[in-house]
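4.2 Preliminary Data

To establish feasibility before requesting continued support, the project team ran the inverse folding procedure on a target of 350 residues. The structure was first converted into the token representation described in Section 3, and no sequence information of any kind was made available to the design step. The complete token record follows.
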């Protein structure tokens, strides 16, 4: 290691070489794939987006005069160019491919809206499901696949709508993300593991942000038949069921009393915060992501839990005294759970 390299640079590659896991050529390849300084990466990303803007402008502006068909053709061309850019595997080309892909998908959805004007938003969502799902399959950067997964989730949510169907969709998103986390060791090494990992992160993020989106949709004019004042009880019940099943699975080798206590705590948590189903979803996603060592998803779930606590505190449907008591009860449950886990850990060490 040269003196100009930062401390710890290349240590993993050197360790793998010393233990015979990789040869010298593979070690050099690993060293070449190390990310550069953050400022250099930022400059490359900005340059890629600027170059993409110039390319898109050169194609979209002439296509605008060709009508709807021209926009659709340009959208397809941009999506193909994005796939070709991802095959080069560099930071610059990955960012350019992301910009071209998003623009191409947007143009295709705009084309659908122009063709099916009376019911444009549903047609746009239908095209979004097809295009985003297809663009997440070819070789691409992880960020692009995550973004495509988020767009796919949003498009499906628009097609499904609010009410009971929307709450069921939220339960499915949470269940899929949790299932992917707890079975990660089975699919991570598969050829399609990269796609599955990106979609797992996308569906987990979508499950975290869906509850407030459903609440806003319930107040929209499109869903006037929904009782806006009632809590999303189906989402709370389904998320609680997923949380209980998750804890029962993670503690399957523990004594029956421990499994029963954990499921009881999960049920109590769901009863306390049934008016804030997003908090139940965030706790379940965090536990599953933490168990699977998915730091990004776990971090977002923890942030979402903090935000949902704040949202619950300012919920107008419950009195301030009632909410304060529930928050105190929830904190007491967490402290009791912490003491119980520490006690179990001490017993295992002894």
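Position-by-position output of the design step:
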């Amino acid at each position: 290691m040269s003196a100009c390299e930062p401390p710890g640079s290349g240590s993993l590659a050197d360790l793998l070489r010393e233990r015979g896991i990789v040869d010298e050529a593979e070690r050099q390849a690993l060293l070449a794939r190390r990310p550069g300084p953050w400022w250099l990466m930022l400059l490359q990303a900005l340059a890629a987006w600027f170059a993409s803007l110039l390319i898109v402008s050169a194609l979209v502006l002439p296509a605008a005069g060709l009508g709807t068909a021209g926009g659709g053709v340009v959208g397809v061309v941009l999506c193909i160019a994005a796939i070709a850019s991802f095959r080069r595997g560099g930071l610059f080309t990955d960012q350019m491919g992301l910009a071209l892909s998003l623009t191409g998908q947007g143009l295709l959805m705009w084309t659908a809206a122009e063709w099916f004007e009376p019911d444009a938003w549903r047609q746009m969502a239908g095209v979004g499901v097809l295009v985003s799902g297809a663009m997440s399959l070819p070789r691409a950067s992880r960020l692009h696949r995550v973004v495509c997964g988020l767009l796919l989730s949003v498009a499906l949510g628009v097609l499904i709508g609010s009410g009971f169907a929307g709450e069921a969709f939220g339960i499915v998103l949470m269940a899929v993300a949790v299932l992917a986390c707890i079975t990660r060791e089975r699919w991570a090494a598969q050829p399609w593991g990269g796609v599955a990992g990106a979609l797992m992160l996308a569906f987990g993020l979508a499950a975290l942000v869906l509850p407030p989106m459903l609440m806003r949709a319930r107040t929209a004019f499109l869903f006037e038949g929904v009782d806006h004042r009632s809590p999303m009880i189906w989402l709370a019940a389904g998320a609680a069921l997923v949380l209980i099943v998750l804890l029962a699975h993670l503690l399957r080798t523990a004594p029956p009393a421990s499994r029963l206590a954990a499921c009881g705590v999960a049920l109590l948590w769901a009863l306390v915060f049934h008016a804030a189903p997003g908090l139940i979803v965030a706790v379940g996603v965090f536990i599953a992501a933490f168990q699977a060592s998915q730091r990004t998803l776990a971090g977002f779930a923890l942030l979402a839990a903090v935000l949902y606590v704040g949202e619950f505190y300012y919920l107008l449907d419950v009195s301030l005294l009632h909410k304060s008591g529930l928050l105190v009860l929830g904190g007491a449950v967490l402290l009791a759970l912490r003491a119980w886990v520490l006690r179990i850990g001490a017993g295992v060490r002894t």
